[in-house]
Design brief:
The chain has helices spanning 18-26, 36-42, 59-74, 92-101, 111-114, 133-141, 143-154, 197-205, 218-224, 234-239, 265-268, 273-307, 319-324, 326-332, 337-345, and strands at 46-51, 79-84, 106-110, 160-166, 171-175, 190-193, 209-212, 229-232, 248-255, 259-264, 311-314. It is of the alpha/beta class and 347 residues long. Strand 1 (46-51), helix 3 and strand 2 (79-84) form a beta-alpha-beta unit. The two termini are 41 Å apart.
């Protein structure tokens, strides 16, 4: 791995980097982006800072680290990645903001957190949109998935590049109070959701009290009773230690919200076209690699839940839950009507 640069910029450069470009510019020797400036930039050494809220070994963390290793190999060490896992650089909202200004290069974040920044992504945040995780994978691997990545890249104010998707399984509900077997069991529970108005509305419609909160605060909030529960996939529930305080997990699978690896556009624009193409290629490989790791990790998480004595409830009838979130669909879905039809048509 590349050496840590906790207090440095989002990348490191060799001496032939910025200073030489500035000297060439002062001498009137630069002939635009396609000339000597591009040649000098191509010789810079970049160590890309990457952020993830999850711990070392988590599928998304491992996939980005492998991507960095492949990047270093392909460029003889000129380009590499330094991963800061376990919320070292803050939660997902902070990671997005840091990427937008070029303080970090790579941020692995939930589409739930990106929705307020790029509205088109909110179609993926509709509850019960996908039939199952296989359906979601087919959508994201196809033209719809690419179009949504392009929506991020082409957004005039987001300042981000949509690099690739990462699986995050299905989200279900867990809490510290009692098993959730019906909507009545949710009534009055304070349930943490991702900071997106859609999710607050969703939880309120289900009968709980939706509490918007950064992921970095959830464990302590569960411990102290600030919230009674949360909703997430089994690996997050287990490997971020939420299972230590929340003993009831219900397989509502109400959301299948993918994650995305985004690249800072200010840093992206400093790369040569060749380097950009290489990063995009390795990003696609990271997407496929993470999926394999995810399936393995999810199986381990479910096994650990059983060993820890977590009471896992399988809903036999999800229809009441689906009916309860109709107001969310009525409020948010009409603007996405065309793409929803295309998503539902994917077999």
């Amino acid at each position: 791995m590349s050496k840590p640069i906790l207090n440095g910029p989002a990348w490191e450069e060799t001496m032939i980097g910025k200073r030489q470009v500035m000297r060439l510019a002062a001498a009137g020797m630069l002939v635009g982006a396609g000339g000597l400036a591009r040649q000098a930039l191509a010789q810079q050494k970049f160590v890309f800072k990457a952020s993830d809220v999850h711990p070392e070994g988590y599928p998304t963390v491992a996939a980005v680290e492998t991507m960095g290793q492949e990047l270093s190999k392909a460029t003889d060490g000129r380009l590499s990645v330094q991963m800061y896992a376990s919320m070292q650089l803050g939660g997902e909202k902070e990671a997005i903001e840091q990427a937008q200004v070029g303080a970090i290069a790579l941020a692995r974040v939930s589409v739930g957190a990106l929705g307020p920044v790029i509205n088109q992504l909110n179609v993926l945040n509709l509850p019960f949109l996908f039939r199952n995780t296989e359906h979601a994978e087919k959508v994201l691997d196809g033209p719809i998935g690419q179009e949504l990545l392009d929506d991020v890249t082409n957004n005039p104010t987001a300042n981000l590049v949509g690099l690739c998707w990462m699986d995050a399984g299905a989200r279900s509900m867990y809490n510290t109070k009692h098993p959730i077997t019906s909507l009545a069991d949710l009534k009055g529970l304070k349930v943490r959701v991702i900071g997106n108005p859609m999710f607050v509305d969703m939880m309120n419609d289900l009968g709980g009290n939706g509490v918007s909160m950064g992921y970095d605060q959830v464990f302590t909030a569960l411990q102290t009773g600030v919230v009674d529960g949360a909703e997430n996939n089994p690996p997050s529930f287990v490997f971020d230690n939420h299972y230590q305080v929340a003993k009831y997990y219900t397989l509502t699978e109400h959301l299948i919200v993918p994650e995305m690896l985004v690249f800072s556009k200010p840093i992206w624009n400093k790369l040569s076209k060749e380097d950009q193409a290489l990063v995009q290629k390795l990003g696609r490989e990271a997407q496929m690699n993470e999926r394999v790791l995810w399936n393995q990790y999810e199986a381990k998480a479910i096994e650990k839940m059983k060993e820890a004595g977590i009471q896992v409830v399988t809903l036999t009838d999800k229809a009441p839950f689906q009916a309860a979130v109709k107001p969310v669909w009525d409020k948010y879905a009409p603007q996405f009507a065309d793409v929803i039809k295309r998503i539902q048509a994917v077999q």
